[in-house]
Amino acid sequence: SKGKKTYNDASGTAPTEEQAKPKCRNTYRLEPRTKVQDGLIRDKAQAILMNKLQGATYDGASSPFLCASISEEILKAVKDLDYDRYKYVVSVLIVEKANQAMIVASRCLWDVQRDTWVSAKCETDTFIALAL
To answer: Where is the stretch described as Disordered (predicted)?
Structure first.
């Protein structure tokens, strides 16, 4: 039919009208059922940072990959907590201790009633790691 896309399943047949219907109806609910527990997420992020970085030294070449793997692990741990109707953004910075200042800035739209943020920090002799 015109304008309709049909997809074949593994058997090569098109899905029936009944199979294409969504399982649940839209609730149009904006607020989450349970509020995020900041302390629980902070503890998980802190444990992941300490586990990955304990005894490590700063290496400029491998730090970007380490930041990516830590942020993916934190994101997975937070998603496993199964909070509904939240979008998660995880940012990890690893900065060498070189007696210099650093300024980090970001922007977002913020809903005071629903949005929150958590930070975790791991400091060694050669670097500081910060997870947001």
So the answer is: 1-28
Pairing relationship of beta strands 127-131 and 120-123 according to DSSP bridges = antiparallel
Is residue 53 classed as helix, strand or coil in its secondary structure? helix
Tell me the per-residue pLDDT of 103-112, one tens digit each, with 9 for 90 and over: 888 888 998 8
Residue-wise pLDDT for 17-57, tens only, equals 556 666 778 878 878 888 889 999 999 999 999 999 988 99
Burial class (CB in 10 A: 0-12, 13-18, 19+), 93: middle
The helix/strand/coil state of 79 is helix
Helix (H) or strand (E) holding 20: helix 17-20
Phi/psi of residue 8, nearest 5 degrees: -90, 140
Look up the pTM and report it: 0.75
